[in-house]
Amino acid sequence: MKQEIEKVCELLKKGGTICYPTDTIWGIGCDATNSKAVEKLFSIKGRDTTKSMLILVDSIDMARRYIDNMPNVAVQLFEYATEPLTIILEEAVEIASNLPAPDGSIGIRIVNHNFCTPLIRKLNRPIVSTSANKSGHPSPTIFSEISPEILSSVDYVVENGRTQKRGKSSKILKLYKNGRVEIIRG
After folding, report:
1. Distances in whole angstroms, Cα of residue 167 to Cα of each of 22, 30, 67, 113, 139
2. Of 11, 12, 42, 83, which sits with the fewest C-beta atoms within 10 Å of its C-beta?
3. How far apart are the C-alpha atoms of 40 and 43, rounded to whole Å?
4. Which CATH architecture has domain 1-185?
5. Residue 52 in contact with residue 107, Cβ under 8 Å?
6. What is the pTM of this model?
7. Domain residue ranges of the chain, discontinuous segments joined by +
8. Is 12 helix (H, G, I), strand (E, B) or coil?
9. How far is it, in rounded angstroms, from Cα 22 to Cα 27?
C-alpha cells in the first residue's frame, strides 16, 4: 500500500484526480489547493459549481490551517466524534478558490482510514472528497457500484479496499459564527 500512496501523492501534486476508498463511502477527489483539479471533479461529477465539496484532513491541526479562526466548539465536536463527522465551517482559507460554497464555507472531515490518512500526511495538504457518483445518483458503498463512466473519467483508481464494503455517508453539521448549529445530515 505504501507504493500506491506514493504514486497517488505524486499524481495529486500534478493536478490528477482519483477514485478512492474513504472512512465512509467510495469517493472521487484531488488536491484541495488545485483549482484546475477541482474544476475537473465538478465536471466528472456533473455537479453545479455553486455546490461545494468537502475536504479531508488528517488532524485538527491541519483543519485549523484551512479555516480562519476555527471555533472551539468545532474542535470539541471533532475530538469527541465516535463516527465520521463532517463540519461545515465559515471562512475557508488556503484552498482552491472554486472549492468553498458561495458563502465562503467548506465542509471538513478528519479522516481515520488506512489509505486516506497516510496519503494526506504524505501530501501535507487536504484532499477533496465527494461521492463517486454522478450528481443526483446513489452513493456507492462498494466498489462494484461505481459507474464505468466515473471510473474512466478519473486519472487513477485506487486498488486498496475494492473488496470491502464501505460504511455510510458521514453526519454533517454546519457551525455558524454566531454559535448556531444546523444538522444538515444526521
Report:
1. 9, 21, 27, 12, 11
2. 83
3. 5
4. Alpha-Beta Complex (3.90)
5. yes
6. 0.94
7. 1-185
8. helix
9. 7
Phi first, then psi, for residue 32 (nearest 5°) are -70, -5
Quick one: cell of 54? Answer: 468537502
Digitized pLDDT (tens) for each residue of the chain, 186 residues in all: 899 999 999 999 999 999 999 999 999 999 999 999 999 999 999 999 888 899 999 999 999 999 998 999 999 999 999 999 999 999 999 999 999 999 999 999 999 999 999 999 999 999 999 999 999 998 888 899 999 999 999 999 998 877 777 678 889 999 998 878 999 988
Do the beta carbons of residue 129 and residue 102 sit within 8 Å?
no
Amino acid, res. 2: K
One-letter amino acid at 33 equals: T
Place of cell 466515473: 150
How many Cβ atoms from other residues are within 10 Å of residue 21's Cβ? 22
C-alpha cell at 180: 448556531
